Backbone:
């Protein structure tokens, strides 16, 4: 637009045939290409370029948060998601031109918290008051690229950045990371928890590698799966000396 790159956001509806649960394989539908239905644009003309769009992790899918330059915008999707109403917003205050690079909506605390990254700083926000609840300054030596919350363990947050590191934080005590990974040799662009087994962490980097790490010690099951009492009693009957 006018020789400038402008980043925007929109909400689309996928065809019913492609919804989860349909048994059609992708090959079957390749003959008749499906088109997506544009429901609405998330109008950011007053707030700047969109850096990130986040659906509410739980709930009815009516709430979306977008990060536009230094603004956090909470949208309410109404009338079958065909209209987006800005319900609340806040701006990042400080010196210079502050801009968000990424964010993540926490699935915990009744979905009232989000984490954002700007430059080398990670911040936590309460979506009800739009106020800052924690701040990790210099979380990484260089730009923070991505964040992800542990899906099964409250307060645990992973971050990655241009200092080639992946760090794990307990948001109740942000003075030091709980653990740091230094497996990559270039910027780490993405970090994701496995949703079922949160000891598994996937990271992608511009060192051209994707690394799957096994972080058992800080997972929700540091001692492996708990054994059922029934299984124990069966074993006792057979091998009481091995108990």
Residues:
């Amino acid at each position: 637009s006018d020789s400038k790159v402008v980043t925007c956001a929109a909400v689309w509806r996928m065809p019913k045939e492609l919804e989860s649960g349909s048994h059609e394989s992708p090959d079957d539908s390749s003959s008749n290409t499906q088109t997506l239905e544009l429901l609405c644009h998330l109008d950011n003309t007053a707030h700047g370029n969109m850096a990130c769009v986040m659906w509410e992790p739980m709930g009815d899918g009516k709430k979306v948060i977008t990060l536009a330059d230094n603004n956090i915008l909470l949208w309410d999707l109404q009338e079958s998601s065909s209209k987006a109403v800005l319900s609340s917003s806040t701006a990042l205050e400080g010196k210079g031109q502050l801009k968000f690079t990424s964010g993540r909506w926490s699935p915990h605390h009744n979905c009232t918290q989000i984490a954002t990254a700007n430059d080398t700083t990670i911040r936590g926000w309460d979506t009800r008051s739009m106020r800052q609840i924690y701040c990790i300054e210099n979380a990484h030596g260089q730009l923070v690229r991505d964040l992800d919350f542990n899906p099964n363990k409250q307060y645990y947050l992973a971050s990655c950045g241009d200092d080639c590191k992946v760090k794990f934080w307990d948001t109740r005590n942000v003075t030091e990371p709980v653990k740091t990974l230094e497996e990559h040799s270039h910027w780490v662009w993405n970090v994701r928890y496995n949703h079922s087994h949160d000891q598994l962490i996937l990271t992608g980097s511009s060192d051209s590698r994707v690394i799957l790490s096994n972080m058992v010690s800080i997972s929700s099951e540091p001692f492996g799966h708990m054994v059922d009492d029934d299984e124990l009693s069966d074993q006792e009957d057979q091998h009481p000396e091995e108990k």
Summary: The CA atoms of residues 25 and 117 lie 38 Å apart.
